Input
Amino acid sequence: MQRKNLLWILLVVLFTTFITSLPAITKASPIITLSVIPTTVTDINVGNTFTVNLTLSDFAPIPPQNKGLWGYQIYLKYNTTVLNATSFENLAYLAYASFKEPEYSAINNTAGLVQIAYHSSMGDKVGFTPTAAMPLASVTFQVNALGTSDLEIGATGITETVLADAYGNAIDPDWNLLLINGHFSNVGEIKLHDIAVTSVAASPTEVEPGGTVSIAVTVKNNGDFSENFTVSAYFSVTHKIQTLAVTNLAPGESKSLTFTWTTTAQVEGPYVVSANAEVAAEANPADNTLTGNTVTVKIPGGGGLPFNMWYIVGGIVVVIVVAIVFYALRARKK
Output
């Protein structure tokens, strides 16, 4: 009996050692974007109207609910000396229940605020999952005077723009909701949205499979607006490593970001890193992407198995140990 217990202890130790030796795989929190589209509206004469959409993109369900989008509450602020909001419309649809308009949706042209809140039928926990960029709502404005106005999504006093999951719980905007504001002008000003990636550098430049690489990226606002946007780091052009959000980057300012790449799934070889800034209504998209240096994934000594083969080898070892213990126990019973 004592020998049997020792065999089981040995098996548990071997299996635990194998599992804990595997590199941890982390997943970045998703970034959902809510934008005013078009981002820039110009040349609308006094007395005329225009419409903007409040568009959701990059939606990803949040665990543990993972039930999709159940509703939204959006606040859009504007300059009342230039614009009046005349109407709004819900553009989102559910697969199983239609949206209902609660009493909280309203236009306040004194405060310069449109508040729009829609949700699925009470008690319905189905929600829906947008698979592509889609407008949640639209707002129509009338131009009352010459001038400019920001079309600002976001917090106003104790109210704030939020999305809700299928359980009616708010999805935290500080965690994963990126708000892209709009701008109106009819006074001939020439203002541009222009974000540039100015440097990309990975370190170290040689790493063992499973090792960690830091990628330093610098972005600069060459435009005329404070910008909210996302930056993604890549290896081999198309393989996304991580996405980070940048908020309220003022004109002329730069910001440094650090991305972490764990090379768990990469075999030996060279990998070129790059970065891309994703900006709405970009005036100069050519400088949104920049290629950095090369990182070489290399096994010390230049030999041995590729890293992902160690998973297979480790699994075979565990199976062999289990088989040996099983047959040893059966032999003792006989």
About this structure: The first strand starts at residue 32 and ends at 37. The chain has three helices and 21 strands.
